[in-house]
């Protein structure tokens, strides 16, 4: 892996908003964020007072965004910073075999079902336009959305696998494994590095990811940021 890709993965939100997701970016040179209905993530160019002021200009009173950083950000006057549980960043080391299931590419017409499944299973933040971040794959059974996974951040040279979720009525069928494998394979086939984030306590998910060739690259800090009351 190149030094440039390592640097991009260390700061995945900033790299995405200045790279593959720059068309979503709100803000300017010192601070950027995703639109509220796309996702809660934001990033700073650096830890300067000017960058924090630029981020503050992007926030509404009572609103919070999330920073994903290699080290915990320093406290900044005028802001309420709440450290959240850290996450492990894992990268794929091989491309799995193609899925044997009839997977569907989900689109705007599927968005209500996608959001309902995300709200039921809580795979992470999923807003009204989150499905626009990249290609989502799903499995339908009896007309119901049984499982899905998709793409989230797109740092230059990499794509994050996200929203891996299965409806409780359809667990035990290896749907998550098949979807994750196919999503990983497609990202690798286009020449990008597949990666994902997982809480260290989620041992079952980590075991699944490792069985598909993912390894831990680093641990990143999550920080909730809002304007000070």
Structural notes for this entry:
With 229 residues, the chain is of the alpha+beta class. The protein has 2 domains: 3-86 and 221-227, 3-Layer(aba) Sandwich (Aminopeptidase); 89-218, Aminopeptidase (3-Layer(aba) Sandwich). The chain has helices at residues 3-10, 12-17, 49-56, 111-121, 175-189, 203-211, and strands at residues 26-27, 31-33, 42-44, 64-69, 79-83, 87-92, 104-106, 136-141, 144-151, 158-166, 193-198, 214-227. The strands form 2 sheets. Strands 4, 5, 6, 7, 8, 9, 10, 11 and 12 form a 9-stranded mixed beta sheet that branches. Strands 1-2-3 form a 3-stranded antiparallel beta sheet. The protein is globular and about 50 Å long. The mean pLDDT is 95.
Which outline best applies?
Answer: globular
| Cα-to-Cα separation, first versus last residue | 43 Å
Average pLDDT? 95
Under the CATH scheme, the architecture of the largest domain is 3-Layer(aba) Sandwich
